[in-house]
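Second opinion, please. Please look over this fold, written as tokens:

===
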Amino acid sequence: MTRLGELERAVMDVLWDRDPAAGAVTVRDVADALQERDLAYTTVMTVLDRLAGKGMVSRERSGRAWRYQPAASREAYIAQLMLDALDLAGSRDAALVRFARSVTGSEAEVLRAALTDQAQATQRQG
């Protein structure tokens, strides 16, 4: 999975934070959302083009312009980063145990519920 640079992350945050029902956005939309950064339009266009090349955004033609949207949700991206980090571990089991011991009680409940749901789904399939 591609790690994002600081500006790429800011652009992705703009895309992820938008209402999905609003549809794809233009370079101008993203530049306007990042106006406090005082970025050139061409800088935002270049970042979006690079993100498209990395598979992080999909784009479609709209007249002479491109419209962009995230290729996956923020949660899917973060989950993939976590899986990639596990691949770096000498022992995935040890890394998972260490991670599980570091989460808060409410986070542990979320993990427990997800694992229970997964186990039940697996039983139904089998």
Observations:
- Residues 60 and 66 are 6 Å apart (CA to CA).
- The first strand starts at residue 57 and ends at 62.
